Each structure stands twice: as structure tokens, then as C-alpha cells.
Inverse folding.
């Protein structure tokens, strides 16, 4: 079935210049393999579309049940240069929680 | 065990937080982080106008207010409040808190030495774009190397009550007292990495204790009374993250993980002036109510370079807004955007960029936003950037006229023309570590 990422994960996002950083953390440790399988760098890049001009990198933190995404050229110049409302990427993590992922029902059962 | 608290995540954070950290329970060290990346350039401009300015001016009155309790309880304060003028900051602290010993860490400011560094072959290429600094040399406003924790620890070794630095790594503020008290050495990589992780967790203040926390956010108790983070650090590099009893917020594995992954880039190589910390080695467990234990942190030898935070003048900008109401609020805002752009074009003005966003529709999330159907109101947000001030000034006069000469039901123009601001851009670069020589000076 298809569910929004919100069901199994939470995010915190921030910036370094024109680069956005999104940490994605599994709400329960058993959801981490779903994150690894479903939330790929390619899908994150596609999800944000024209917002992210550069590449997207993914790093794994199995010890925390978390992934970290680095999105280049994502903030309209970043910091003080950017004209955007959210030049510091504070809300990009929340945006990602809408992304739809595929899970089997048994994967969600405790 | 020593208790290290952070009472300021950025300049402008809650003024009461440091006071409450000292008054509401035991702490040994109070760290305060004032310097965002572009704060240095703002302070540089203030110093150019007045050689006695250029530091976080909230800090000396705060220390004046806390002086008696700092002495009573033996709390030591470590703050990067010095900005580009740590000596002036220290003199003002001494004036408002004459009973306290103050030590200053110097040596981060490489602005006066830029040409010397360029001549010596340090190109200071932009870490994001690869361009050499020479391209913007004549527009550089400030240049500060990120210092590590050892100069701060040396300042604590002098017996100072208050340690003031300029630019230093945020996490170094909390690592310094561990080096000072536990005698950690410059090649104790795992210990330095552990202290760096502790510093990273508390450097953004209440973001570690339930502030800006997404999961189940509405259940987090008493945010009005939120407790700022405290690290209980042990000699062996393990530590507990907590907050004072009776304060609001929450410290659990979820809130602490959330801060651990904040702005870290490659988690295996979290590079600071002191060490390269491996965030994939962190072990995390709940150790009681509002207590989270961290252990297992591993580190690798520090790099032979230091990051330099350079700022330069990059033109002018302004952002204006107008609010359109239902019905067809978004269509009206889009139409108004087109009219403004057409009028600017006919004026023959040249902008580096014109950016339009529709607040209430997709300003935060762009193409990832949920679809919305005829919202009650939409804010048109249109901004421009240009090399010269006059061009941007002219733009600011093109917003309010739309109220009478554009689509119907526009409001929210009460502030009149939007302000024009200078764009101060950030240029991150590296220089050889041995080019920077930190020093400590005791005042009074």
C-alpha cells in the first residue's frame, strides 16, 4: 500500500549556504529498512523538482535509524542572498513528509 | 562529572534562557553561541563606524545581570560574543561586572591579513563554487578562521570567570570545558569527537529539548517554560543530555536524534578544527525521564586546514508583499505579479533575479506542496536583487500602486514600500592551519 512518509518518519532540516540538509528519522527502529529502500536520493531529487537545481546525496546512519540528505543548489543562493521565504530550509523536512512510499502491511505491524 | 549548559542558540535567542539555566538548577559551565555565518559582517560594519563596537552587544548587560550569581555559584561562562572585536566586548563586560575575571581568545580575525595570505598562495577558493577569492577581493567585508576548543580551554586554564572569543566552531564552546577539566589531549580523537557531538547537540539551544520538534509536537509539555539543554559530561567521553527539573520541553531519544542529524552533511566526517567526528558511531539510549545517554563516539585525526568564514558585499535586494483575498486569490496574485514584472521591464531596469512566491500556496514547499483549491487568501511575495541600490529602490515603488491599479481586493500594504537591504554573501574557504595563531589575553 502507499502511505505518506509522515506515517513512519520525522525530519529536521537546515542549511549551509545554498545547500539544504534534511535528516529523516524512523519513528520506530523497525521502519529503518523501509526508509533505506524507499527514500532514495533519486526519489528525493524528483520529489522537490525544480526547487533543487543541483544533485542530492544520501548518507545512512543505521545507529540512529536515520538517513541524511544533502541537497545542492536548493535555496535560491542561500543565506542572505536568497529572496525566498524559507532561505534556511527550515520547512523542507516537513515537505518531504508528504512523499508517498510503498509498504506491505506486515512491515508496519509491531 | 561536569554540567555544561547552552543558553543561546543564536544571537536573538530567548533572553531569559541563560538566566533560568543559572537560577533553576546546578550547572558548572554556561555556553552562549551568538555567531551565525553572516553575523560577522554585520559586526564588521558596526566596528567600521565605531571602533568600540563589533561584538554581540546583548552579552555584557547579560553578564552584568548575572554577575552576582556567576560568582556565588562558581559558574564559568564561555561565549563567542566577541564577534570582530572581542577586546571591546571584554572591556564592556569588565565595566558592567567589575568583580569577574575575563579572558579573551584572539587570533581568528584574518581580515587584515587577506592580501598577505593571497600573496603566500592561499587562494581561499569558495568551498561551494571553487572560485578563487581574488574574484571578489575588493568587496570582502570580513574574514575569520574557525578556532577550535583548545584556545578556549587555555582561557579557562587562566581561572577566568568569563571567556570571550570571536569566531570559533559552535561545538568548541562545550568541548572546551571538558578539555580544561578532564585534561584531554590534542590527539585524544575519540574523546574530542565525543565532546564535539555533545557540543553539536546543545549548540542550537532548545532544539535539543523539544523546541522545533516534529513528531507528536503538540504533546510536548509547557513550551513556554522550555528548559535549555544541559550535558552531564564524564571523563571517559560518555555524557547525558538533560534539562533542569520542572522546566518544559522534552529530552528523549527522538528529540535528541532530531538535533543530531541537524545540518551535519556527511555523518562519517563531521569536520571541526579539533577532530573529525563519526556520527555513525553514536550510541543513544533513554536513561530516565528527560535523560538521554550518548556513548561509543569515535573520532579521526583533525585536518591540516581551518575553515575561514569570509563575507563580501554582493549587491542589493528587496522583497515586497501584497495580500489578495478570495475569490480567486491565487489568480489575482499571479496577475499582479505579471503586471509588476511588465512595468519593471518597461522601465528598462536590470535585475540579477526577480523571484515570486505565493504564500499560502507553495512558498515553503514549491512543487512539493499539497494542491490547494481557491484558498481564502494568498500573499504575493516578490523580491529582486541587483548590483546597484537605485535599481532596487525603484522596484520598491512598484508594489503598493497595484492596490488601485491591479486586480481587486488587495490589502496588507500598510508598511508602504519594503526596505532595501545590502546583500552580504558568505564565502566559505580553507587556509592552512599553521597560518592561524590563536592567543589568550586576561583582562583586569
Amino acid at each position: 500500500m502507499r502511505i505518506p512518509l509522515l506515517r513512519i518518519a520525522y525530519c529536521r532540516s537546515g542549511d549551509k549556504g545554498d545547500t539544504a540538509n534534511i535528516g529523516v528519522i524512523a519513528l520506530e527502529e523497525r521502519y529503518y529498512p523501509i526508509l533505506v529502500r524507499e527514500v532514495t536520493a533519486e526519489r528525493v531529487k524528483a520529489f522537490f523538482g525544480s526547487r533543487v537545481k543541483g544533485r542530492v546525496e544520501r548518507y545512512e546512519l543505521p545507529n540512529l535509524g536515520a538517513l541524511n540528505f544533502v541537497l545542492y543548489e536548493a535555496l535560491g543562493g542561500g543565506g542572505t542572498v536568497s529572496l525566498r521565504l524559507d532561505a534556511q530550509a527550515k520547512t523542507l523536512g516537513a515537505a518531504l513528509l508528504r512523499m508517498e512510499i510503498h509498504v506491505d502491511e506486515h512491515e508496519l505491524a509491531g | 562529572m561536569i554540567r555544561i549548559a547552552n543558553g543561546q542558540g543564536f544571537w536573538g535567542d530567548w533572553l531569559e534562557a541563560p538566566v533560568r539555566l543559572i537560577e533553576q538548577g546546578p550547572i558548572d559551565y554556561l555556553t552562549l553561541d551568538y555567531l551565525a555565518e553572516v553575523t560577522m559582517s554585520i559586526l564588521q560594519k558596526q566596528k567600521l563606524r565605531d571602533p568600540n563596537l563589533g561584538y554581540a552587544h546583548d552579552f555584557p548587560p547579560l553578564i552584568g545581570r548575572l554577575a552576582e550569581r556567576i560568582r556565588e555559584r562558581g559558574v564559568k561562562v564561555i561565549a563567542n560574543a566577541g564577534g570582530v572585536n572581542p577586546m571591546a566586548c571584554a572591556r564592556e563586560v569588565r565595566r558592567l561586572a567589575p568583580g569577574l575575571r575575563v579572558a579573551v581568545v584572539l587570533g581568528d580575525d584574518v581580515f587584515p591579513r587577506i592580501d598577505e595570505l593571497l600573496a603566500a598562495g592561499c587562494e581561499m577558493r569558495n568551498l561551494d563554487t571553487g572560485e578563487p577569492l581574488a574574484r571578489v577581493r575588493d568587496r570582502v567585508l570580513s574574514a575569520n578562521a574557525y578556532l577550535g576548543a583548545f584556545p578556549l580551554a587555555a582561557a579557562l586554564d587562566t581561572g577566568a570567570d568569563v571567556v570571550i572569543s570571536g569566531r570559533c566552531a559552535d561545538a568548541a564552546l562545550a568541548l572546551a570545558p571538558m578539555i580544561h577539566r578532564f585534561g584531554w589531549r590534542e590527539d585524544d580523537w575519540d574523546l574530542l569527537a565525543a565532546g564535539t557531538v555533545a557540543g553539536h547537540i546543545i549548540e542550537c539551544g532548545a532544539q535539543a529539548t523539544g523546541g522545533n520538534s516534529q513528531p507528536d509536537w503538540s504533546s510536548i509539555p509547557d513550551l513556554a517554560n522550555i528548559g535549555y539543554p544541559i550535558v552531564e559530561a564524564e571523563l571517559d567521553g560518555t555524557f547525558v543530555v538533560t534539562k533542569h527539573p520542572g522546566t518544559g520541553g522534552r529530552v528523549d531519544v527522538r528529540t535528541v536524534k532530531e538535533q543530531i542529524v541537524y545540518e551535519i552533511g556527511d555523518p562519517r566526517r563531521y569536520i571541526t578544527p579539533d577532530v573529525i567526528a563519526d556520527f555513525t558511531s553514536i550510541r543513544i539510549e533513554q536513561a530516565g525521564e528527560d535523560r538521554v545517554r550518548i556513548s561509543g563516539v569515535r573520532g579521526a585525526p583533525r585536518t591540516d586546514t581551518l575553515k575561514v568564514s569570509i563575507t563580501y558585499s554582493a549587491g542589493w535586494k528587496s522583497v515586497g508583499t501584497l495580500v489578495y483575498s478570495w475569490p480567486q486569490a491565487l489568480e489575482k496574485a499571479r496577475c499582479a505579479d505579471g503586471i509588476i514584472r511588465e512595468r519593471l521591464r518597461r522601465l528598462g531596469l536590470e535585475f540579477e533575479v526577480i523571484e515570486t512566491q505565493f504564500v499560502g500556496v507553495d512558498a515553503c514547499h514549491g512543487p512539493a506542496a499539497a494542491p490547494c483549491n481557491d484558498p481564502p487568501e494568498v500573499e504575493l511575495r516578490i523580491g529582486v536583487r541587483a548590483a546597484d541600490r537605485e535599481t532596487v529602490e525603484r522596484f520598491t515603488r512598484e508594489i503598493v500602486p497595484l492596490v488601485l491599479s491591479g486586480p481587486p481586493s488587495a490589502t496588507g500594504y500598510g508598511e508602504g514600500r519594503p526596505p532595501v537591504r545590502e546583500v552580504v554573501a558568505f564565502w566559505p574557504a580553507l587556509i592552512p592551519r599553521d597560518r592561524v595563531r590563536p592567543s589568550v589575553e586576561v583582562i583586569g
The longest strand of chain A covers residues 9-16.
